[in-house]
Design brief:
There is one protein chain. By secondary structure, the protein is α/β, with parallel strands linked by helices. The chain is about 50% helix and about 15% strand. Strand 1 (about 20-25), helix 2 (about 25-35) and strand 2 (about 40-45) form a beta-alpha-beta unit. It is elongated.
Length: about 260
């Protein structure tokens, strides 16, 4: 996710490569990142910066935050999963922090993220966080308690769509289509449906109604989905993922192996 942000910020013109710095402990990974992002400094120690993105495993957050404080970083955006604002503020002291829940679609510039402000973060910090995450997708503001719901919906959501894609492809093969043909049609169908939803401004219900002729093929397919409990299954998936997010956020974290912190200055 840190890589996605660096690439997105450069591609969007939010920052020049020489204005960015990636902190990475592993030498091999540093070489890899330096090759991928020419002009971006890739170092093993946190430098002074106007702002930094914490993109590490939960067990590494406290150590990363301590280094950020020592380096005099002005503000922090954390995309570390399951680490609360309370924990972040305990580690950062007076440094303002914004917590975010992005998703993997940020890797292709189509992410969905939500942000929540810490007690010391004001409008300037929220706007900065929106600009950073907005370089790779859509950003909304929510109170921190709603971030678990965001995790259940958009954080885990790509996996639900991937599962639907798998099922559509398999179904196409089952009814006689070659696998490659089924895959191409299924993926374009998902892409087209998503674009209809985002570009027409119509509700999912109205779009569904528009393509469902009484007694037609789509009506037959939708009846089968409803009979199988597809709608309830999706709802239950979001509810279950939200509950699990709450459990993980409440659980203590243990130190893990070193990973990258992305510093944005």
């Amino acid at each position: 996710m840190g890589e996605a942000l660096v690439g997105g910020l450069v591609a969007a013109g939010w920052a020049r490569p020489e204005e960015l710095c990636v902190v990475e402990r592993l030498a091999g990974r540093r070489r890899e990142l330096a090759g991928r992002f020419p002009g971006v400094a890739v170092v093993d120690r946190v430098p002074s910066a106007d702002g930094a993105v914490v993109a590490v495993k939960p067990g590494d957050v406290a150590g990363a935050c301590a280094e950020l404080v020592e380096a005099g970083v002005g503000r922090v955006l954390s995309i570390a999963a399951g680490v609360s604002l309370t924990a972040l503020e305990a580690a950062l002291g007076e440094v303002p922090v914004v917590r975010a829940m992005p998703n993997t679609a940020a890797l292709v510039g189509a992410g969905a993220a939500a942000i929540a402000a810490g007690t010391r973060a004001g409008e300037a910090e929220l706007t900065w966080a929106e600009e950073v995450l907005g370089a790779v997708g859509e950003v909304v503001r929510v109170p921190e308690p709603l971030l678990d719901g965001v995790t259940g919906l958009s954080g885990s959501g790509p996996a639900y769509v991937f599962l639907v894609a798998e099922a559509l492809i398999d179904a196409g093969v089952l009814v006689g289509l070659p696998h490659d043909t089924s895959r191409r049609l299924a993926l374009q169908t998902l892409l087209g449906a998503a674009r209809l939803l985002t570009e027409t401004g119509q509700s999912p219900q109205s779009l569904r109604t528009a393509v469902t002729s009484p007694g037609g093929t789509t009506a037959a397919g939708l009846r089968a989905l409803e009979a199988a409990g597809a709608r309830s299954a999706v709802i239950e998936a979001v509810v279950a993922a939200t509950a699990r997010s709450r459990e993980l956020c409440d659980a203590p974290t243990s130190p893990s192996s070193p990973s990258a912190t992305t510093g944005l200055q």
